[in-house]
């Protein structure tokens, strides 16, 4: 879209949830741009039926309606590659929202190509990260695409004006669904559910326990631990307790196990790409287990320097994903390095899940680099020469000895 | 020490625990090097009386005996500076052993200077990291010092030969203390206790619950959570629940609170600097709380780019400490950057401790950069112009749009 | 400035060169914003008189006129700190324009504070990096300041419309100066002169030799080399050929020496922060010498790991300066580390300047870490034990030997 | 080799130059280890005939003699991949020696496998980097191999004792070759020639001009510049002035061109991996041209963030190669990222060579990301919206504005 005037748009693909806000957007796009609207609704594991969106779209006069089940693609091509890097944003956040956006952006563009649309649209606000993620992806994949971000354009910035718009345009408010409106701004997919706004806007205020949807509280979790065994192949989980599963099934099952044991709640203040701090609370049961387990299997199979290099690259990689640069050449470059490292990340990890905590209690692998003969505290029968350590230390110390000998003082 | 022959040593300062092994070393040094031995025993919070080491040393004929309480120095000058960086080795390990070694090295050299000794000695083996940490520190602080590492030199490599040596030299075996000999190799200080060896040498084998000394198991922890409030000044904790405390008192109290709630157990396979993998289990109750809390207060007070830069530097900083380079110019250089960032890390963090998990539930600060007016989901009265986001995204996307326009394909 | 409407501005401080463009801006500000204009003109070594700007400003009706000689501050507080890091953007560019902008931004804000102005303005276009550098600095130092960037707002985007505006408003065109208008867009200060535009917009086209202003061509330089000796204290040059000089005098003299020997021409394609590539040609005679010399003195005095850490941090530091983040907490954090490293960077470097090339031919220092006794190929009388190397190699190889022993293949 | 006693060795592969030192090693190995010796002599472009080594080896009683021309493999699989990263060690050194060692190590192991040898041997001293590079490579590729490093073992540490050994064992001293013995320790291959020792051991002393072998001095170079055009495909040079060439032919031709124009001399103090500083002088005519040219073609074709990421990774990559870790999983991991970036590095670079300086004067590519329509200073017909810059700057400044608004002071 041009910066200064309303552009000519003939057809726009909208990321349509079926909810009230995006239903208003349909109408607003039709009115404001006098264009055809194509809706796209995806199941990425948010836990709500997507099929009802069809009837709602039809009621709004939409002719081209796309409803896709993207759960396997989401986990296989986005979640799993990200977890290969032990990715954490700002030391804490598992990037549950961030990693879903590039998939949506890709599908929006694919549908635009297929339907001959010249624009895409989404329901993200002008204050958040999601607008950036959608739009960077769209521009990177189709540079001439126009982007319409209604929340940055329209005047419907309060709930009241939005409701008035609905009444005026005969948009049934039950589009919002039968559920009581949550006081929080939420986002869900197979990796996580997030909560922002409401009383969370005071970072000193503890989140209410009844806010959470996917996990029981640690206090309410079972009094006996659950043990689970994960099988890795090339850095990805391929089986749980010996049973092979697809990527989406793996994540769904780990969500179930984690949620039942009170695992994966996170309460943080994070730094948005647009420049402000915000407070977010997340439930990521399966992801929390996966991060711990992946470090466990890597600890046995990865070379030390490869592991350290990965740790040094990770914050940058996490930042790229958080900021919306999944579809960028620098992310691809880092992914090439990360994926190269994962060929040997095979084996099993055994975990204990108990009242909010996940602990690695065992790991084994045919690709293990752990060498009992050398590591042992017992007699190693000559596998390791302790005398070698003297030269090792002497030469590592040499530069500092020379410096100290010339009067440098480190105290 | 020269690499090829027994050097001339007239006086050696030994890091002496009062236990059997270092008592044997006293005798062995006297016999092998015909030198005077100075013993140095430090209280760094390992939880055992250090005064009894005096009588034992005297019984071995030692004339110069140093017994120091280094707990405050340990926490103030080593533990706290390290925690300012949110330091984790290999994503998991809080460096409890690593961070104590440079203090011991420093005192060994100070005592060598004071007593005119020309050598130091320690009881670390030739397979581990501690020899490196002691010796790199010693060489960096006094380049001409000789280092005697008996475990790399002598033939007493098995328990049997060691016992035979004791008998032969009238070293009372009760020097080992009245406690039943643990099957594990252990190391303790105010930050942590570590366990290696025994059945832990199989990384698939879960640690026995009765191995742990400082913490109850999560299962045995109280059924109701404990809440605690920490006050930070310049990145360090200065009060708990509003009560000012010294650094060592802070850590001791957090160990008590954490241990009572089953917090801080960690079971990992780690990469040693000498080149092998080893399995270690750690209890770090207070440190686990401190890491989480420090991230909490930083999340509110640190600039985003400073926080991200710290995250990128941290793995290198952790590696330096793990590998024994505390007393190095590169660690000082990194510390200068880290400390520069901490001037604004002031405020309070509220935490929930429950059955092995520690959660930040609130944070507040006079130095907060959280701006409710801007972050709010409600109307912000013009504090933030959503329209700005369009230009922000457009220019951030420009390089990728140009590339895509010229045919680059990111899929 | 608000994004959507003309803000209320009562007084604006303009970075005023005295040239035609900024003179037009004076008039345009007065007309468009009906506000008072304060002009600020700085001598940062661009090689043109600044005093004539006074009469021109007076002729435009300006009452508050600031004309400052900032050359010493520029070199001392901006150029020298940057050179401590061996800073190069994209491996080539010495950041001559970038490093001057934060000083201008700082003075604009100081003058705004002093005169009670509520806005600043500048003559940078909307396509370049300089607008970003000016404005990021201004916002960081005075968050409520308004910024007016005429080139992003007005309609005078071509030379013709600009000239028409002059005629219409009686702005004498000789404000452009008597010099023939260069076909290039140029920027000069004590560190460099830059050229963009014109036939340089074709990256395959070689720059004309008569474009250059500060340096003779290598072909025209003397047939005998010039030798020069620089004295460093804490990483900064304090004397040339034994003669103490102020920072600005150092840089002026090195520009003279370099320019006379054809040194410091650079022709590159660079990546702008706003997302496009541009072709720039630079003359940086003194800076080119300083970079080479600083590496020379560091090579003798810096610890290896400190030097390597600096090299790893440098690209980020360069990027910060290029992108306009001098006045940021992350730049300060990096500077703290860099400056910490420079305490020992003292001594002399001897250089050969010849027909475009600068070569270090000698370096010496009381803080040298070069140890002839150890480095010698001759007998070192036991200063270094070659046997130590065996253990050093063995343990450094251990992780790879274990891996290969377990079947890993690196070929 | 065991650290403490002479190991049992039945057959050893020696990196044999045919010179005096390695001829002495042949004899010494036969005598000391009573083992069979296999010699391996490689042409890696050092500029001396390798075939004469055959007769010398035969005269020493060697039965298995390997003489290989490795020039193409050297440039194709080692030099070119390294140059894709714009690799410089400590900001200056093109790693000419370092990059040849892993190839030698690989061939030593291949020959050991082929001949059933259980050990390798080399003529590198115990003070340098080359021993590390040979041995790390050997251990990584064949973990059970024994390594014999005579210079670390024998007593022949002075020229006199060596000569006495020759006389005693009837080793003809003319093995040293007819050439006058250089006062420098030298190493040559197709990428460079290096000089150490002699009067270079004083870092203040300028190298004598008659030391250099491959390049004329800049003063003696032609008075008119030479222009050359290089063609790149996927980051490697495939043609010079339009003529396709093999990798080794490319480097040989660039050496010729560079040497004739006085290009590629470098005089530095560098930090060895074994802990000391040393002074080295290098001639790298072709490599110096290649570095400059590769940056030139990348500047046009690489995405900005990819380029910056490469710059941040480069120092680590250079350190790995310098320290001898070519055959390591972390080098492979970095190489995967680097190679991923090079798919688009195609096109032509035009260079000017003149009296020691190499300058890029033009670059063009079908994969160029330079967009004249956007970069132009002239009217761009709406290709770029200058207004977008305002939002870009505003949001990039937001975190600092909030901070300043809350009282943070960056001055």
UniProtKB/TrEMBL annotation, chains A, B, C, D:
Q: What is this protein called?
A: Argininosuccinate synthase
Query: Entry's HAMAP family?
Result: Arg_succ_synth_type1
Q: Taxonomically, which superkingdom?
A: Bacteria
Q: Which residues does the UniProt record annotate as the domain Arginosuccinate synthase C-terminal?
A: 184-402
**Could you tell me the EC number(s) of this protein?**
6.3.4.5
Q: How does it assemble?
A: Homotetramer.
Keywords linked to the UniProt accession: Amino-acid biosynthesis, Arginine biosynthesis, ATP-binding, Cytoplasm, Ligase, Nucleotide-binding
Task: Supply the Pfam families for this chain.
Answer: Arginosuc_syn_C, Arginosuc_synth
Top EC group: ligase
Q: Where is it mostly found?
A: cytoplasm
- Report the GO terms under cellular component: cytoplasm
Residues bound to L-citrulline: 93, 98, 129, 133, 185, 194, 270, 282
* GO process annotations (BP): argininosuccinate metabolic process; L-arginine biosynthetic process; urea cycle
Compartments, as annotated in UniProt: Cytoplasm
Q: Could you say which residues bind L-aspartate here?
A: 125, 129-130
Domain named Arginosuccinate synthase-like N-terminal: residues: 11-172
Q: In which pathway does it act?
A: Amino-acid biosynthesis; L-arginine biosynthesis; L-arginine from L-ornithine and carbamoyl phosphate: step 2/3
Q: Which PROSITE patterns match?
A: ARGININOSUCCIN_SYN_1 (PS00564), ARGININOSUCCIN_SYN_2 (PS00565)
Q: Which reaction does it catalyse?
A: L-citrulline + L-aspartate + ATP = 2-(N(omega)-L-arginino)succinate + AMP + diphosphate + H(+)
Q: Which InterPro entries does the entry mention?
A: Arginosuc_syn_C, Arginosuc_syn_N, Arginosuc_synth, Arginosuc_synth_CS, Arginosuc_synth_type_1_subfam, AS_cat/multimer_dom_body, Rossmann-like_a/b/a_fold
Question: Which residues does ATP bind?
Answer: 15-23, 42, 123
């Amino acid at each position: 879209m041009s910066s200064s005037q309303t552009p000519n748009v003939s057809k726009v693909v909208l990321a349509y949830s079926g909810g009230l806000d995006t239903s208003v957007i349909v109408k607003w796009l039709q009115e404001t741009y006098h264009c055809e609207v194509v809706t796209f609704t995806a199941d990425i594991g948010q836990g709500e039926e997507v099929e009802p969106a069809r009837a709602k779209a039809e009621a709004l006069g939409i002719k081209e309606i796309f409803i896709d089940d993207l759960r396997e693609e989401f986990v296989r091509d986005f979640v799993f590659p990200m977890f290969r890097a032990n990715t954490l944003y700002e030391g804490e956040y598992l990037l549950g929202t961030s990693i879903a956006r590039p998939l949506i952006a890709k599908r929006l563009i694919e549908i635009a190509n297929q339907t001959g649309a010249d624009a895409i649209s989404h329901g993200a606000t002008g204050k958040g990260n999601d607008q950036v993620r959608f739009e960077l992806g769209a521009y990177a994949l189709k540079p001439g695409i126009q982007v319409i971000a209604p929340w940055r354009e329209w005047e419907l910035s309060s709930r009241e004006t939005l409701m008035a718009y609905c009444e005026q345009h005969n948009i049934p408010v039950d589009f919002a669904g039968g559920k009581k409106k949550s006081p929080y701004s939420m986002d869900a997919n197979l990796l996580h559910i997030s909560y922002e706004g409401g009383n969370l806007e005071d970072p000193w205020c503890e989140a209410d326990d009844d806010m959470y949807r996917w996990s029981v509280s640690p206090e309410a979790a079972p009094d006996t631990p659950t043990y689970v065994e994960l099988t890795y192949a090339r850095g990805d989980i391929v089986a749980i307790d010996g049973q092979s599963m697809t990527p989406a099934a793996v994540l769904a099952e780990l969500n179930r196990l984690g949620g039942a044991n009170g695992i994966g709640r996170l309460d943080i203040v994070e730094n948005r790409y647009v420049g402000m701090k915000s407070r977010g609370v997340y439930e990521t049961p399966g992801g929390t287990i996966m991060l711990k387990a992946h470090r466990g299997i890597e600890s046995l199979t990865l070379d030390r320097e490869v592991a350290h290099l990965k740790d040094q690259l990770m914050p940058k990689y996490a930042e790229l994903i958080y900021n919306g640069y999944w579809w960028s050449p620098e992310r691809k470059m880092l992914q090439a390095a990360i994926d190269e490292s994962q060929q040997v990340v095979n084996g099993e990890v055994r975990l204990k899940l108990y009242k909010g905590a996940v602990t690695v209690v065992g790991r084994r692998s045919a690709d293990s680099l752990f060498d009992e003969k050398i590591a042992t505290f017992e007699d190693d029968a000559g596998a390791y020469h302790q005398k070698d350590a003297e030269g090792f230390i002497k030469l590592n110390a040499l530069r500092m000895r020379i410096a100290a000998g010339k009067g440098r003082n480190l105290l």
